[in-house]
Amino acid sequence: MLQLGLCCLFKNEAVFFRTTTVKTLATLPRDLQLLKLSEICWHNGLNLLLALEAVERLGIGAFRIMSPLFPRMTHPEAGYTLDDLPDGEAISRTLEACRLFAGRAKIRLSFHPDQFVVLSSPHPSVVANSIQELEYQAELAVAVGADVINIHGGGVYGDKRGALQRFAAVYGGLSDAIRSRLTLENDDVSYTPADLLPFCEQLAIPLVYDVHHHRCNRDNLTIEEATERAGATWKAAGKRQYCHISSPKGGWEGGTPKPHADYIDAGDIPECWLEREMTVDVEAKAKELAVVRLMTDIQELKNRS
DNA sequence: GCATGTCAAGTTGTG
DNA sequence: CACAACTTGACATGC
After folding, report:
1. What is the pLDDT of residue A76?
2. How far is Cα A1 from Cα A62, in angstroms, rounded to an integer?
3. Pairwise CA distance, residues A32 & A289, whole Å
4. How confident is the model at residue A253 (pLDDT cuts 50, 70, 90)?
5. N or C terminus of chain A: which is more exposed, having fewer CB within 10 Å?
6. CB of residue A153 closer than 7 A to nucleic acid strand B?
């Protein structure tokens, strides 16, 4: 059945994630930096567990973990490993607790590195930093039992095919921990499902189908076709399909439809999704409130039909 | 206390 | 050519 997922944050639950900046860290000697980072990482680990408990209580089926769970971990100057932190062992134990809890509660976990991870870039330093970030997220994914690390195709640089070829070359050299979890998502400006599907099929990379991006950035595929073909890439990888939904702030008329609305208009859910076996991340500003409301709305839709 | 400007990273499209 | 949009809040600073 359709299983809905929450992205990163809550509106009304007492779950908070802390962070810090390189600028602030730079004012401290290294030992105090590590102390501060240790407190933040421990706090975030404990709050991840609180997040999973809330997710289970609300009947939500999946949770996307925010990228900076351990802030600045791969930064060239401020970077660190858990072993460097005074409470590193305790932090590892909280991750293990999260993995066990999510496993028992059957909560699917994923990561979504942000726009700075670009494997198609012609700049070697950008690619190197991206790989380092993926290594970090893969390490976390192993620790908490997440099966998806989802990224975008990146830039086009005037030559989509060339960009994807660079992507493929980099992909071949990635570690198993990354490759067994890496997925691609169609975006709202550059890569459509039609661009990515042949590539994903060839390299056996699952395609996360974002129907809102598809509506903003069209190709010759219908929503039904894109859903089906994307589904096949997941089947080939032996995983349950993953999709994204969001509704445009201010509707489809007028200005840019891209910003996300507070809630999802149930009418934006493709009909062919309703009875489909898959996970759908809800990208909405009202966070868990939007997921809960959408679950109710979908149930009503089904009851009516 | 509270308001405000800032925050690692890339790329594209707009003004 | 510079800057905002992606997403968005938490933090540090200064009143």
Report:
1. 83
2. 13
3. 38
4. low
5. C
6. no
Residue linked to tokens 């994807």: A164
CB neighbours of residue A297 within 10 Å: 16
| Nucleotides on strand B lying under 7 Å from protein C-beta | 6-13
Q: CB under 8 Å to A35, separation ≥6 — which residues?
A: A86
Q: Give the confidence band of A250 by pLDDT, cuts at 50, 70, 90.
A: low
Going through chain A in order, the beta strands assigned E by DSSP cover: 2-7, 62-65, 108-111, 148-152, 182-185, 207-210, 241-245, 278-282
**Residue A286 CA to C10 C1' — how many Å?**
18
DSSP codes of every residue in A82-147: GGGSTTHHHHHHHHHHHHHHHHHHT-EEEE---TT--TT-S-HHHHHHHHHHHHHHHHHHHHHT--
Residue A262 DSSP one-character state? S
Conformational region of residue A204, where left means phi above 0, alpha means psi within -120 to 50, and beta covers everything else? left
> A303: buried, middle or exposed (CB in 10 Å: 19+, 13-18, 0-12)?
exposed
C8 C1': nearest CA residue: A285
Q: CA of A187 vs C1' of C1, distance in Å?
A: 26
Q: Which nucleotide is nearest to A158 (CA to C1')?
A: B12
How far apart CA A138 and CA A146 sit, in angstroms, is 9
Residues 34-63 of A with CB within 7 A of strand B: none
Q: Do residues A69 and A140 touch, judged by C-beta distance below 8 A?
A: yes
Please report the domains of chain A, with CATH numbers, ordered by start residue: 1-111 (3.20.20.150)
pLDDT digits (tens, 9 = 90+) for A140-171: 999 999 999 999 999 999 999 999 999 999 99
Place of tokens 């507070």: A262
Task: Output the distance from A21 CA to C11 C1' rounded to whole Å.
Answer: 8
Paired with A65 in beta bridges are A111
